[in-house]
Amino acid sequence: MSLAVLASRALCGLQAFAVRVEVHVGPGLPAFHVVGLPDTGVRESRERVRSAIISSGFDFPAGRITVNLAPADLPKESGRFDLPIALGVLLASGQVPAADSAGAAPDLRRYVFAGELSLTGAIVAVGAPLAIALAVARSDPDAILVLPPGCADTAANVPGLTVLAAATLVETVEHFCGSSVLQQAQGRHCAGPSPTPLLCLADVRGQPLARRALEIAAAGAHSLLMSGSPGTGKSMLAHRLPGLLPRLTVDHALEVAALASLNGTDQGYSDLPPFRAPHHSASLPALVGGGARPRPGEISLAHRGVLFLDELPHFQRNVLESLREPLETGSVSIARASRTLTFPARFQLVAAMNPCACGWLGHASMRCRCLPDQVDKYRNRLSGPLLDRIDLQIALPTTQVDWMDEAAGESSGVVRSRVAQCRERQLRRQGCCNAMLRIDDIERHCVLDRDAAALLRQAMLRWHWSARVGHRVLRVARTLADLCAQRQIRGVHIAEAIQYRQPWG
């Protein structure tokens, strides 16, 4: 046999497209060519494959070898194609038997290979094994994925997918020759306790309005903006939101771990929602994603979790404006000359800011030094379209001197149970959280009684709200009704939702 065809995967963002590795060994002067839009890392596989085959005790064919990575218009990168190329060379040169009708050898058409070869013939780790495994499981659940041992244990977490761990090229060849069998990988289950334990809401004393807003944000997956003087508890509250959120499902946890692996972080996977808090000096590529080889940014690493932006007005204007589309769509697209990559970014935004540049506007004892136009300039760093997309906007009052004497509030566990019940009602009714309701779903599920409709109309006229703000208020009111286990939105729910659109007090 002079032609062999094997299957592999090419990563484009979180997507892993199918690649056919076609290897032809023919007569002619010795040559080794790789075609199909390979990058430098793939072209260098020729030397790695040659040395690995010889070091493993096989014969490297003395002929014209052509490797085609199809489809040819899909960019190929990294060394993950080394293993299928080496197996293709051995198969095409007759050193590995092809599958026959009698079943004397495994049918390679069922297998998907990814692994980088060392010069000794060992198979070393490849990047983003979870992304590859998720793509294989979704497109062909009956496929068998062959990966290096560490990567195989990670990929085996994908439910229903068979993953084999191959440590060396010799072991892989022996498996297909029938002389031995590759071990099936066992998944590394959810990570144990978080290295930074979840913080409890009972630590926050006072600030009943902010505690209530935090519970509503968790219950409906709403975005939240807190404005208040230094020391009012904005950051303290934000860091306690993950403890109120339900645990991630297996599919969501794997998706989060796959995104982290694209950034070179392989830490297994956890059912805890991610929490990202970039500094206000973060650049646009750091927050949104980018680079010569686009990688996910902070908004994608916060997918299915919380993105906390402290000192919101101090972020660059173009960085803040880049949040508008992901807040609406739950994804971000990064365009390059050759391709456009899309990363998921269904994050829950929590932001904090001072009421003015000095921070003391409205404080009970500290004197604000800002002039009115300076206050306006500071607040105008946040554009109207961005504020329209934030569901809850509250002003935190100054903490009182006797706050230490106040009784501890409810713990995160108690609040989380109410949040879980509220989200369960939403999922049963509409299949998603209230913050993600589409326009047609709002008309179907956000039914107002007469008082609620009149109150919302008055508020939109008084504050000149856009239709987008009206829809945001309806989504929050729907969450308030769900917390009360009521099917219809009443006037009291609209009134409370309106209360959470006053960021400056």
UniProtKB/TrEMBL annotation:
<dbReference type="GO" id="GO:0008233">
    <property type="term" value="F:peptidase activity"/>
</dbReference>
<dbReference type="InterPro" id="IPR014721">
    <property type="entry name" value="Ribsml_uS5_D2-typ_fold_subgr"/>
</dbReference>
<dbReference type="InterPro" id="IPR045006">
    <property type="entry name" value="CHLI-like"/>
</dbReference>
<dbReference type="InterPro" id="IPR027417">
    <property type="entry name" value="P-loop_NTPase"/>
</dbReference>
<keyword id="KW-0547">Nucleotide-binding</keyword>
<comment type="similarity">
    <text>Belongs to the Mg-chelatase subunits D/I family. ComM subfamily.</text>
</comment>
<dbReference type="GO" id="GO:0003677">
    <property type="term" value="F:DNA binding"/>
</dbReference>
<keyword id="KW-0067">ATP-binding</keyword>
<dbReference type="Pfam" id="PF13541">
    <property type="entry name" value="ChlI"/>
</dbReference>
<dbReference type="InterPro" id="IPR003593">
    <property type="entry name" value="AAA+_ATPase"/>
</dbReference>
<feature type="domain" description="MCM C-terminal AAA(+) ATPase">
    <location>
        <begin position="297"/>
        <end position="392"/>
    </location>
</feature>
<dbReference type="Pfam" id="PF01078">
    <property type="entry name" value="Mg_chelatase"/>
</dbReference>
<keyword id="KW-0645">Protease</keyword>
<dbReference type="Pfam" id="PF13335">
    <property type="entry name" value="Mg_chelatase_C"/>
</dbReference>
<dbReference type="InterPro" id="IPR020568">
    <property type="entry name" value="Ribosomal_Su5_D2-typ_SF"/>
</dbReference>
<protein>
    <submittedName>
        <fullName>ATP-dependent protease</fullName>
    </submittedName>
</protein>
<dbReference type="InterPro" id="IPR025158">
    <property type="entry name" value="Mg_chelat-rel_C"/>
</dbReference>
<dbReference type="InterPro" id="IPR000523">
    <property type="entry name" value="Mg_chelatse_chII-like_cat_dom"/>
</dbReference>
<dbReference type="InterPro" id="IPR001208">
    <property type="entry name" value="MCM_dom"/>
</dbReference>
<keyword id="KW-0378">Hydrolase</keyword>
<dbReference type="GO" id="GO:0005524">
    <property type="term" value="F:ATP binding"/>
</dbReference>
<dbReference type="InterPro" id="IPR004482">
    <property type="entry name" value="Mg_chelat-rel"/>
</dbReference>
<dbReference type="GO" id="GO:0006508">
    <property type="term" value="P:proteolysis"/>
</dbReference>
